[in-house]
Amino acid sequence: MRAMLFGLMLLAPTVALAEPIETQKIITALTGDWNCDGAVDLAMIVETQPSEPMDMHFFLRDREHNFLRPAGIVRDQILGEWNGYDRSGYEASDTEPELTALPNGSIKLYLPAMPVGSNRTNQTLTLAYRDGVFIVAGFAYDYHDNLEDNVASDCDYDVLTGKGKSSKMQPDGTTKQKTVAVGGKVIAFSEWNPGTGFSACGE
Questions:
Q1: Which of 129, 145, 193, 201 could form a disulfide with 155 if both were Cys (CB 3.0 to 4.6 A apart)?
Q2: Which residues form the signal peptide (predicted)?
């Protein structure tokens, strides 16, 4: 585990640079204490272009000087659509990601399914700040088919320990439970591949 954390430190930028953010492109924002130093930090999801993945910006508060210091930008990990500032009417709003601060300083990132086709897969990532990098500490999903009866599954998997639980609905309507037991991993949020989570869950 220590070796994996050291590898993540090498991925972290030596200098965290900010970039201009158009306020009307901010989808949602969240405050919390990501590095557990007693100061209030910030995370924001920002729209890029319509139908393109959104960016997530992280800021850590400098306690000595009392300002928010940029702590990195993660790109291409958040799919969604919203009522773009440059498009009229709320009819353009489809799917918006959600952020929740957890008591331990982690961030819950909920990614609702895009409304395309009958299959719906909602995903939830638990993000944590470790050794200067935001990592994916947990992965969960729930799946169902709007047009088929008894077609549903879900999973909740701790990426760091490799442990979790999954379930799948059977044709007769019963649910089959399964234990997830794979090797634990430390994966930077910027390097996350949803396939890692689905594979661990047996999909």
A1: 201
A2: 1-18
